Amino acid sequence: MTKTMNKGFLYYLLAAIRMIFLVLMLLFAAVPLLQVFINSFRSDREVKIMPIGLPKDWALNNWPETWEIGGYAQAYLNSLLTAAVVIVVVLTLVGLGAYALSKLEFKGKNFFMAYFFVAISLPTFLYIVPDYFVMNKLGLVDTRWSLMIIYSATQLPFNMLLLRTFLSGIPRELEEAAKIDGCSELQCFLRVTLPIAKPMFLTIGILVFVHVWNEFLWANTFITTESLKPVATKYVVFTGQYGSNMARIYTASVITIAPVILLYLAFSRRFIEGMTSGSVKG
User: Fold this and answer.
1) Which of 132, 159, 179, 189 is a good FRET partner for 138, with 20 to 30 A between their CA atoms?
2) Domain span holding position 73
3) What is the CA radius of gyration of the chain?
């Protein structure tokens, strides 16, 4: 009886410790974001006097002024268009490539696997200079196409291996049964594998969107025309020309990260489902 009570006490103690730890981690992540959001409604003078606190007078004009100064309407359009094209390209190539690497046997398979492993181990900024010269020769510098091509290429290796790991856990017998019913290899992928792997495809789509939305180095290097610049590059306007206005800097931060946070809140369950599925397959 005493041992049972001790086990029960130990179980609830560990559960309480885990809960306290999770709450502390939540506060550690959420409180700074909440304060940044609150500061976007405070005046510049208030923020400089006391960076942490509630607004005495709500400065609602921060948002329309920051939106207008930063040109965020066009920047949002640029980032969304670029992200949409990159997501479609990456999901298409990654889906077909990962299916081939996980389900088919062909000459050079091991080479491609090694190539993708090497590709994810190299920092992307190492080839920013040669890529710039190539894009310049092709006449693609200062166009959306340059970013679409670069983002698609840099997102392929990691996501290819991630999806390949997931697809390796799907029994090959399912595709073989579909082949007996007359399906081709492509039809097996579209009708059997793709529906099962939908959570992983959604996860990859979210990862690609976040990368494209937040990426600064390549966008700032390849795009010089203001009307073509994506959202991430607009933040420089407020840390440079308007760097003395802290309220606008906080507002620009919220405008920049808001879509990413909303995306995670909307698809958090499916995102976690896809990541955990990928981690246990294969």
Assistant:
1) 159
2) 69-280
3) 24
